[in-house]
Write the structure tokens for this entry.
Amino acid sequence: MALEPKLEERPAPSRTIDALMSDMVRLNRHIGSYPPHFSSEEQRQKIYKKWLDLMSDAEAYAKLKPESEDGWHLLSELYRQGHNMDVKQAGEKTIAILGKCLAKYPRSVGCHQSAAYFYLSVGPGYLPQAEHSLSTLRAIHSPKLDPEVESGYVFLHIYRGDAPAAKGQIDQYLKHFPKDGRAEIFKDIRKGLDNPIKGFDDAKK
């Protein structure tokens, strides 16, 4: 069941932007990806209340500093989390905020990270936007490689149905980040990609 974005109007945020960012990151454990991870309906409601509290503060911060890069990054991440949690209009809000942020700050690491995560999650129609943010982030980090960016490319190739590119990207990822937490998952996906009939379909699920 979709959730309502019942935000509280606040004249000012109750915590600093750094505290808001830290609290938002902690919610990623449950609502940072789709589908969200809840052990029960009770936990879902508890996380939803925490999210509403953070959103209310984030919107208050945005009113005080309406063109803040940090403020837009925070809002984009929170609305992205809300989209994962099936909050009404959260996806549309995410797209609108990312558009504003990247128009004013075209090399914003935070907003491009949010964009890459979001656009990879919402369907094939948005893969060009995801690739744009990934390529921008790769250029910003160059000559170093960032594991978040490189893992994003794995999923970009998979969602496009390009098994050879996905395998090549996984090989590069494992070469540079052999001890990363995603390494074992990517090894399993890589095995599935070697079977073009069944394995690739399984890897896309």
Remarks:
- The chain has two domains: 14-128, 145-205.
